[in-house]
Design a protein that fits this description.
This protein is an alpha+beta fold and 680 residues long. It has five domains: 3-62, Orthogonal Bundle (Helix Hairpins); 74-319, 2-Layer Sandwich (D-amino Acid Aminotransferase, Chain A, domain 1), CATH 3.30.470.30; 324-403, Nucleic acid-binding proteins (OB fold (Dihydrolipoamide Acetyltransferase, E2P)), CATH 2.40.50; 437-591, 5' to 3' exonuclease, C-terminal subdomain (DNA polymerase, domain 1); 605-678, 3-Layer(aba) Sandwich (Rossmann fold). The strands form eight sheets. Strands 2-13-10-3-9 form a five-stranded mixed β-sheet. It has a five-stranded antiparallel β-sheet with strand order 16-15-14-18-19, with no helix packed on it. Helix 23 (650-658) links the parallel strand 25 and strand 26 (662-663). The chain binds 2-(butylsulfanyl)adenosine. Residues 82-84, 115, 117-118, 122, 179, 231-232, 293, 312, 315, 317 line the site of 2-(butylsulfanyl)adenosine.
């Protein structure tokens, strides 16, 4: 190939790649596959190496060209980079409107533009003759830091305008303002990758974006999934658009990414209506927003209104309740669950987060406290989003004073004082004392529940009273209760007491499998209990099973097998088993029939996604497995059905693309019932 032909090819490749880049990163409408794109880039790299004189700063190969710097240079902004006043409710908003309409009656004819208030950080982009020459942080609004090399690595930032042939040309001088941020999904992926690599994870998208942009090594910045949306023109050699709506469209026409959530309304009344809707859809936006920005559409009127301090009068932010706040961690408490698992929780100075005041949040498990190095008296970042229970993200280590104390996990159960235990390969710590009072209430609750002994009429209130008064110290004690005992309790009159005693006694006839479920052995649910009741004739036989023997049964791994053996090895549990026999709770498998395993769904593979109306994920899994089906985590060609609840995500998309049929919870039950009928 001749040099000239190669040079022409370079020019064409640079242009084509920039075009596809724009389609992909700004418009989100790629025309070619990633593979084809990579092939073009590879070819361009080869040719540019042969013709280095053709490598200009606008070449798509030059986004990550610069070397790491020692520190950032200062940049004076051409005009003040203003901030925004905040409002928190409709009254604040109305007060703002009343104020400005009084200052200038033209406000009432202006109309408004609503924009998402992106939770990122401001950057100021300077273009000379259409070429990006500088990117700067906001700094104090007058002087920022030169982060040009980093900004160039952000794929949705145009390096050159017009981005594609025939598109709008840039004014000779153009300074644009936008917000750099990370999409929620990209943030999750980034943290997953860091976790897999054994590296420290980031706390939230905003801090990560800010930290990444202020990296001295642009190579590092380029490995962060930063993106941008623009919303203001700081300076232009062309006349400024007359309205904000026009301005946003000008930016779009020039090839800048602009949010597609922007909305224009005519009256202030509509502002109030529309902002309400925006609040409701907060979670469906793919990036973090901390509010909505309301701007006067008429930019001349907005300009004339001037500003108060650094806040323009012609715009205001309606802030959403913060979902992440910091507070002081006063102490760490420990909860004991039904299976004896110990869960640490944070006790902190009460704070308002996501619209409610909270003073406690889960800490997941003890490893989490160690991994995040959370110390008592730390300032911690906590999050509460939607219906999610509040949780601790991590400590703000920069705020440490030296008075923080590392946490020591308890060696004994905080409720009964028995030593806590840990299974190899598991994060959880357990209290394995069946008589532990904290576990008693939860144990009783589980024992009497519908899935276990199904003792009708025994609710949580009465169970708590039994435990609190000491009337019942273990599940076997339930069968020793007499009518007189109940009459002393709140709400138990003659008939009700009779009924409950009757229900308790009647439950003695429940099949062995249900009794096994009721014991609450870790990992032993409906399916495992049914299998055990098929193999062992009573609790005494089961208590003699060895781990090896159990592991030979299908579906029994070492963890469940060990848990069973462990449970029966404890003296307290042995005493409980013989007490159950003494009080007449002694079902014999060969004499009763339990929820035996059925094979209607044999050979069928299910994936469960979303929130089902009545069944939990585990219960749905049990139902399927009890009927011989298999449940897996991800959708593939081998999936037969997708069991679908509300708020399903990517699994549904995948199933749709593979043409896999979907079942609601109801449809699943109908399917099983139909198969049952068909099989007699
Ligand atoms: S307009 C005069 N529009 O919020 C222009 N700001 O709390 C004032 N922000 O510093 C800013 N999204 O970093 C504007 N659509 C948006 C925004 C936005 C996010 C940030 C921006 C600003 C801060 C003020």
């Amino acid at each position: 190939m001749t040099d000239n032909a190669e040079i022409d090819e370079i020019k064409k490749l640079q242009k084509d790649i920039n075009f596809h880049f724009y389609r992909y990163h700004v418009l989100d409408q790629p025309l070619i596959s990633d593979y084809e794109y990579d092939t073009l880039i590879k070819r361009l790299r080869v040719l540019e190496a042969k013709h280095p004189e053709m490598v200009t700063s606008e070449s798509p190969t030059q986004r990550i060209g610069a070397l790491a710097a020692d520190k950032f240079q200062k940049v004076a902004h051409p005009a003040p980079i203003l901030s925004l006043a905040n409002s928190f409710n409709n009254e604040d908003l109305s007060a703002w409107y009343d104020r400005i309409v009084k200052l200038d009656p033209k406000v009432s004819r202006s109309g408004f533009v609503l924009e998402p208030k992106i939770d990122g950080l401001t950057v100021v982009l300077r273009y000379e003759k259409g070429v990006l020459v500088q990117g700067a942080t906001r700094g104090d609004g007058e002087i920022g830091e030169d982060v040009t090399a980093n900004v160039r690595t952000i794929k949705s930032v145009p390096l050159k305008i017009p981005v594609v042939d025939g598109a709008k040309k840039a004014p000779d001088l153009l300074v644009v303002r936008g917000e750099v941020f990370i999409l929620r999904d990209d943030f999750i992926k980034l943290n997953q990758a860091l976790e897999e690599a054994g590296d420290k994870t980031y706390q939230n998208p905003r801090n990560t974006a800010a930290g990444s942009l202020r990296q001295l090594d642009p190579g590092l910045t380029s490995s962060r999934p930063l993106t941008i949306l623009t919303y203001a023109i700081v300076q232009s050699s062309d006349p400024m658009p007359a309205t904000q709506w026009e301005l946003l469209h000008t930016l779009k026409d020039l090839g800048f990414p602009v949010s597609d959530l922007i909305e224009k309304v005519d009256s202030f009344n509509d502002v109030l209506k529309v902002t309400q809707r925006w609040i409701e859809r907060r979670d469906s936006i793919p990036f973090e927003v901390d509010g909505v920005v309301i701007k006067l559409d008429d930019l001349r009127v907005a300009d004339e209104l001037g500003f108060v301090g650094k806040d323009p009068r012609g715009a205001i932010a309606l802030k959403y309740p913060a979902r992440e706040v910091t507070t002081i961690l006063r102490d760490i408490g420990v909860n004991v669950g039904r299976t004896g698992v110990l869960t640490p929780y944070a006790i902190f100075e009460p704070v308002e987060v996501g619209g409610v005041t909270v003073s406690k949040a889960t800490l997941h498990n003890f490893d989490f406290i160690t991994d995040k190095d959370i110390r008592i008296q730390d300032r911690v970042l906590i999050k509460r989003a939607g219906d999610v229970i509040p949780y601790v993200i991590g400590p703000i280590t920069d705020a440490r004073t030296g008075n923080e104390k590392p946490y020591q996990m308890p060696k004994v159960c905080p409720s009964c004082g028995q030593e806590v235990e840990h299974l190899a390969g598991e994060v959880a710590w357990y209290c394995v004392n069946a008589a532990c009072p904290a576990q008693l209430v939860r144990n009783l609750e589980h024992f009497v529940s519908r899935g276990a002994m199904d003792i009708v009429g025994m609710g949580i209130k009465i169970v708590e009273q039994f435990a609190e008064t000491g009337m019942v110290k273990d599940i076997a004690d339930l069968f020793l209760l007499k009518k007189e005992d109940l009459l002393g309790l709140e709400g138990y009159k003659d008939k009700k007491a009779d009924n409950l005693i009757e229900a308790i006694q009647a439950s003695k006839k429940q099949p062995l499998a249900r009794l096994i479920i009721g014991l609450g052995i870790r990992g032993v649910g409906e399916v495992a209990a049914a299998d055990l009741a098929e193999k062992f004739n009573d609790l005494s036989e089961l208590s003699k099973a060895t781990s090896l023997q159990l592991q030979q049964m299908e579906g029994f791994g070492p963890n469940t097998a060990e848990a069973i053996v462990d449970w029966f090895a404890r003296p307290a549990n042995q005493a409980l088993v013989s007490k159950l026999k003494d009080v007449g709770v002694w079902p014999i498998a060969s004499e009763t029939s339990g929820p035996a395993k059925r094979w209607y769904l044999d050979g069928k593979t299910f994936v469960i996604t979303g929130t089902l109306p009545t069944l939990s994920r585990d219960q749905a899994k049990e139902l399927i497995e009890l009927n011989g089906g298999k449940v897996t985590d991800s959708v593939s060609k081998k999936t037969d059905y997708l069991v679908l609840g509300e708020n399903a995500g990517s699994k549904l998309e995948k199933a749709l693309s593979l043409g896999i049929p979907q079942l609601s919870e109801e449809a699943l039950r109908t399917l099983i019932a139909d198969l049952e009928k068909a099989n007699g």
